[in-house]
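Quarterly update, task 2.4: zinc ion-bound model.
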Amino acid sequence: ENEISFLTEIPKCEHHLHIEGTLEPKLLFELAEKNNINLPLNFPATHEELAASYNNFSNLQDFLDVYYIGCNVLINEDDFYQLTLEYLTKVSKQGLKHTEIFFDPQSHTSRNLSIDLVFNGIKKACDEIFVEFGITTKIIMCLLRHCSIDDCSATLDLAEHLIKDGKIHGLGLDSSEKPFPPELFEQVYLKAKQLNPELRLTAHAGEEGDSSYITNALNKLNVERIDHGVRSIEDPKVIERLANEKIMLSVCPLSNVVLRVVQDVSQLPIKKFLDANVPFSINSDDPAYFGGYILDNYLEVQRRFKLTKKDWAFIATNAILGSWCDEDRKTELL
Ligand code: ES4
Ligand code: ZN
């Protein structure tokens, strides 16, 4: 009980949250009906059955197949607004202070939605929640690595105005990690940075892929942090580099269990990261699919590792320092 209130109170920052992954089964069915979207014939018939099916993913691709079906029910600006508002309202009760929200433009532009419609819906909810709860947000677009380089490059063109004026704050890379290593996207990342030198860069690496994916994301894409990155533990040199260069990993404990990266959270290298001084934050990834929001991830880490208050202070401080919020916001949170 004490632990629950301690972990609720501790100021939390989230850096790895796919907004499409906050689509709860109930809202998925509501929007499908409202928007007249036909779900596949073999799709579960009720939100209860859908929720139950999430226990059976055997890997990342298994999950992504369902996640992309879910994306199809999002049609109107208001759908993205409602989705984002429901996420932010939930985490406002979990001690979340700052969140960096990923969205996948290609999951929507491929269905002929405009990137502005998607962005505006998300942004409207972010602005309202800031006024109501003081939670700060940054929006990061992710490119889908299973799409062609040309499609990724064309998506940057669609986002050009949002990147140039800093409304899109960062670029990430998600979807099926293998067989799409980071170096394939070198030119795309270069082009993005040329649109706006202040654009922040990250990429999913070292969840499915081995530690060379992390090294190549750093060397070829010039990313400032790594999403997941747990397979860094397989290479002491990579661990040393992350610690020395203060490169933060956005670790997603419950995600790693549901997608079978590890059997349970106790198998994650949390203690090793702490011992090696590797900065990391704890995040929810796709909370509607993986069984919990940010606080649930903190609680599961504590249940498995029994960390000290000093450990938690290290984690919370690094999460603030690794955030891409404005400097005065950082100072406020520290
Ligand atoms: C994702 Cl867990 C994960 N990995 C890669 N891409 C994703 N998109 C949404 N969730
Ligand atoms: Zn992710």
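Highlight for this quarter: The domain at 2-329 is CATH 3.20.20.140 (TIM Barrel).
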